[in-house]
User: What shape does this take?
Amino acid sequence: MHSRLCPAKLADRVAVARLLDVVTPDLVEEAISRSNAREQRSRQMPSWLSLYFCLAAWLWAGDGYANVYGKLADGLVWCGRNVPGDPPNVPSISRALDRLGPEPLSALFQRLAAADTGQSLTLDITHVGVSRPCDFPRARIAVLTGDRGVVDATWAPASVAEDDLPGRLAYLRGRPGAVTAESSGELLRWVTGDAGARAMLRSRTVSGVDQEIWALLCVRQAFG
Assistant: This one.
């Protein structure tokens, strides 16, 4: 007797497989090593798994941490990866993300960012909400996109003027007039399907917001 896999579960597994095709284990290990973020002792959620969890949280942005972990772990096993047997509880997941920090996600984004194509570039500014008790209620994300995907990105609290964000993009320095089009909310439209929607980050600390935004940008590049 053959068991039937429900379409939703199959789609979740395929999403993890696609993620692994782009964000390979070698890239993850490189980002962790470059950031000196490898765990010092055996953990229920090792650094590599914590990093993939950060990305998976954007694949299933409407799910709680426990459901995200369950879908990620199932997909990883389906793809032939070994995952610790007992699923961590939500506080353990939060502590694992705190230990990982934002640096590996930033390093991973730099590796995934598209090369200079010399083609037209679009600058998008997206606004996201930040959960309390973080030091600021909203953040702005500037994304520079070319024909092959995201070329560069940065973010800042909403207290930073929107016009100042392009000056923080390293790619644009010394390239006046490189931006040929501008948009607003494209990153949010990609995540939610609605540029007018309100996106609220889960993180409640500056470090967590930094980690979550870089994870979003990595997923955007992997699936864009």
In short: Residues 206-223 form the longest helix (18 residues). The first strand starts at residue 121 and ends at 129. The chain has two domains: 7-110, 114-205.
